[in-house]
Amino acid sequence: MSPLFEIRDQVVIVTGATGVLAGTAADYLLEQGCRVVYLGRTQKKLDEAVARAGENADRVLAIPCDVLKESDLEDVKATVLEKWGKIDVLINGAGGNQPGATIGPDKNFFDLNLEDYSTVLDLNLKGTVLPSMVFGKSMTDQKSGCIVNFSSMAADRVITRVLGYSNAKASIDNFTRWLAVEMAHKFGEGIRVNAIAPGFFIADQNRRLLTNEDGSYTDRGQSVINATPFKRFGEAAEVCGTLHYLLGDASKFVTGTVIPVDGGFSCFSGV
To answer: Taking the model in full, what pTM does it have?
Structure first.
């Protein structure tokens, strides 16, 4: 493998690692020789990640963690530094949505549940900022590191209904650029901050919204396909190539970017 793409032995922390996209990314990085810390809130799914690792289990830590609790994150940091002595990469994959933060087809903006809205903002935005503060401090101490955030097509395009999630992910884009500049100005070129903006992928939280029980598309699912030049949904593994690029020296001069992985959704006018 070219040295530009060599990422073996990097210590990678993945939040939301029990989810589809972040979990697939964590599994991929383990296969590439990284030492991977799976963080999630569900012990059963963390145990499944260890089981999937098989003979690579010695390069896995699977730790229950709430990304909104600083004490949890500090405990993780202490455990990782004691075991492996460094933190090279943070992938902020934790996120999600709440029913009350969306606008259903039979509702409008004035029906928004502000409690659910705040929950979504906290999970997606604060749940990215706080891990970046805790684990990013180790990167500044060692003067090297890479942070990759998960954005969304909802950040830059108006996607109906998902107000809270859209607002939160738009903030992720801004935070990515802001933190990239802050790290470069205060701590030098060794720490890079970028984001990946996935298009539409099928996961448990959106499956019923996009597909029927027989596998056909719902009206909303068909609308997404119509707006995606590749005419299909993404597959989770298709995020991994872009992620690999961002973690290696191939992207050594890249920071503050938000890279779409979307089958052309973000560039298509619909005409």
So the answer is: 0.96
Which residues does 226 contact at the CB level (< 8 Å), separation at least 6?
270
Identify the DSSP state of 118. H
How far, in Å, CA of 176 to CA of 180, rounded? 6
What average pLDDT score do residues 130-136 get? Answer: 98
Please determine, for residue 270, whether its predicted confidence score (pLDDT) is greater than 90. no
**Counts for the chain of helices (H) and strands (E), in that order:** 9, 7
39: helix, strand or coil: strand
Residues taking part in catalysis:
165
Compute the Cα dihedral for 228, 24, 2, 36 and give only its sign. Answer: positive
Per the model's pLDDT, the better-predicted residue between 14 and 216 turns out to be 14
User: Residue 257 has what DSSP assignment?
Assistant: -
Torsion sign across C-alpha atoms 228, 231, 233, 236: negative
Tell me which residue of 12, 5, 49, 51 sits closest to 29, measured CA to CA. Answer: 12
> Encoding tokens for residue 178?
């802001």
Closest by Cα among 14, 7, 6, 35 to 148:
14
Among 45, 86, 88, 81, smallest CA distance to 63 is for 45
